[in-house]
Amino acid sequence: MTTTEQPRAPQFPLHRGCPFAPPEQATEFRAEGAPRRVRIWSGAQPWLITRHDQIREVLGATDRFGADVTVPGFPSTSDAQPHVEGDLFFRKDGAEHLPTRRVLNPDFTAKRSEALRPRMIELTDQLIDRLETMERPVDLIEHFALALPTVIICEVLGVPPEDSPRVHEASKKVVQLSISKDEKLAAMQDMHDVLQKHAERKRTEPDNGLLSRLVNEYVDEKGQFDFDYAIRLGMLAISAGHETTANMIGLGILALIREPEQRRILLSDPDKYAATCVEEMMRYWSMVQTEPRRVCLQDTEIGGVLIRAGEGVICNLPAANRDPDVFDNPEVLDITRVERRHIGFGFGVHQCLGQNLSRVEMQVAWPRLFQRLPDLRLTVDETDLHFHNDALTYGLEELPVTW
Ligand code: HEM
């Protein structure tokens, strides 16, 4: 076991040199085996965990690694993060986490998400109809990938269709890298105002959407949290699912354009391959690239290294999901792969709340798009595509196509 400082702590986030692979340094660290220190914006040097088994160990040991962003030593993403997210359940542990998660769970079960499949097919078809009327090249990020998740999450929440474009515009700005902080804050305020308006209305006009349930059952009846917290949970559901699912839809389209054999297999029997295609794309892209983060609560040895209480830990999902000890030919995209132990949606008690919903969205979006537009192709050279490399989630800024 070693407690000595590692010689070199690279700046985190690490960059992906090849857009289709994890950062080279993360791959090297995984091959070396032990956790390695990285340097974050504040100068702190949390441990980076890259091996699949070690990440599962960290995320599974909730008594030794906590998710509370306000605990000293948590490797936060900015000075503001503990203040902005500090009271939200997903940045908490135990009794401050689970009860709220249980409140949200019923709207995101596999069964509830599956029930939305026909609606997703209808919406996907409408989006493709609209694409067909547009002048080409068309940017599929803006006009396809970003649109589907927002409309669906609005329906889960019970935000009526006339307001979903407003939520869509606001959530697009929240995740856009090129706009100012003030514009982002204004967009968040707008999203807040829309949800507040509808949440108020649900007090007199209840329905079976999530907002109505939060306000009537958990704010007014049980007093489990206050009205503003209910709105912030709604905003969390929108923002957590929007950028992630949209980026995955975009990345998946790119992969299917550049790998015709995988596209052929998917279209040969979408009922059979859509589900395995989603799991493989989640593994292959591992687009949540700077999380999960935890703070060590009790000295613990991981991979031969002593991690001390109060030290931060960052899990690197891209490297773990290409771990050759778990996946055969990990660099190869194979939508018929049967090994399903990827951790693209995280692992343990904090694993993704919305995973069932995004799974069905991707299962619908990819086959439908290529069935209807079989000649879909890029209008720029692959090397001219721009990926957001430093962001929490990896993805394409634009995906210009024609057919
Ligand atoms: C492809 C799409 C998505 C990906 C890749 C993704 C990924 C993840 C990951 C890796 C985590 C674990 C974070 C951690 O352990 O610290 C997580 C948690 C979470 N995700 Fe997702 N997510 C996706 C879609 C969604 C959607 C559609 C929602 C909508 C509700 C959502 C809501 C959440 C929430 C609320 C948490 C925190 C859960 C908790 O702490 O108990 N995600 N997600």
Automatic annotation (TrEMBL):
CDD domains: CYP105-like (cd11030)
Gene3D superfamilies cross-referenced by the UniProt entry: Cytochrome P450
Molecular functions (GO terms): heme binding; iron ion binding; monooxygenase activity; oxidoreductase activity, acting on paired donors, with incorporation or reduction of molecular oxygen
One Pfam family of this chain: p450
Zinc-finger found in the keyword field: no
Domain of life: Bacteria
Region (Disordered): 1-23
Cofactor: heme
Annotated keywords: Heme, Iron, Metal-binding, Monooxygenase, Oxidoreductase
Family label: Belongs to the cytochrome P450 family.
Protein name as catalogued: Cytochrome P450
Protein species of origin: Nocardia jinanensis
